[in-house]
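Bumping my old thread because nobody answered last time. Still need a sequence for this structure:
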């Protein structure tokens, strides 16, 4: 369903005169099947979010080929592309307008895309993400972190896209609500037959949600494997990453253990 071939992107002045040019993506290749959940993992700065941003149309100066359902993706963000591909960001506070109610935030894309039965669609979408009608009147600051992310997911899904790009969708959330949002995302994918590309630092999230993953290092994909193979060690860099994530999780858990012992 999604084919990315030789994707390259850099920032800065590429003329060579001013210097400061940084090549961020080098020949990134991967494919994602319809209905698949594909994880992108790797060290900080390896280019994961940049890949998502190219797919979402937030960057237009990439080179290479991106095709969705066999159709080459242009560099302009068209109405059809918005209907097909939507993105959910790490921080729902940043992606929701602070002075728009939940109802207004969900109605806006429907109005722009002139969709019929807008109020009915908002009610259905709220129910799908587990929020009742009373949430329509609330502002983002009147929601918990988990509820805000539910609204952000609802806003991304309200145009009925087929592809959801998820950039660290749970990392800004309290540990207690992370599982709730992951379960919601898994449930929505199963029910709606959605295709996910998910960027995360957390291999636990990949295991929970993804069928396959690609490991990025310095702007390149260095390994692609089924999630089921993660436990088997994989190739050297993936093994190192798995170990690093394990020790990262352990160090995150330590303060809680200390707290519990008080
Ligand atoms: N708009 C930009 N202008 C200049 N450089 C950028 C820009 N966006 C990203 N970069 C650089 O591109 C590289 C890749 O960034 P990217 O955000 O894709 O990494 P990442 O793997 O998602 O990292 P993290 O896991 O920390 O979010 C980094 O070196 C970053 O500094």
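Sorry it took so long. Here it is:
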């Amino acid at each position: 369903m999604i084919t990315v071939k030789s994707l390259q992107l850099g920032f800065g002045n590429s003329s060579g005169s001013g210097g400061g040019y940084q090549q961020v993506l080098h020949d990134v290749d991967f494919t994602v099947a319809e209905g698949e959940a594909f994880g992108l993992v790797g060290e900080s700065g390896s280019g994961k979010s940049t890949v998502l941003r190219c797919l979402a149309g937030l960057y237009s100066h990439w080179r290479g080929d991106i095709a969705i359902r066999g159709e080459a993706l242009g560099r302009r963000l068209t109405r059809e592309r918005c209907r097909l591909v939507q993105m959910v960001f790490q921080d729902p506070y940043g992606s929701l307008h602070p002075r728009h109610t939940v109802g207004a935030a969900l109605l806006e894309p429907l109005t722009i895309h002139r969709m019929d039965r807008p109020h009915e669609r908002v009610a259905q979408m709220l129910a799908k993400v587990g929020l009742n009608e009373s949430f329509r009147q609330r502002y983002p600051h009147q929601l918990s972190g988990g509820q805000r992310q539910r609204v952000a997911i609802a806003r991304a899904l309200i145009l009925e896209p087929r592809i959801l790009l998820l950039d660290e969708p749970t990392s800004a959330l309290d540990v207690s609500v992370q599982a709730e949002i992951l379960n919601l995302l898994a449930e929505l994918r199963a029910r709606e037959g959605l295709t996910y590309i998910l960027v995360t630092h957390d291999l636990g999230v990949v295991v929970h949600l993804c069928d396959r993953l690609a490991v990025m290092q310095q702007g390149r994909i260095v390994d692609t494997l089924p999630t089921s193979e993660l436990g088997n060690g994989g190739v050297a860099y993936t093994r190192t990453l798995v170990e690093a994530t394990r020790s990262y999780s352990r160090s995150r858990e330590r303060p809680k253990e200390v707290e519990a012992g008080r």
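Confidence is low (pLDDT under 50) at residues 253-262. Let me know if any region looks off to you.
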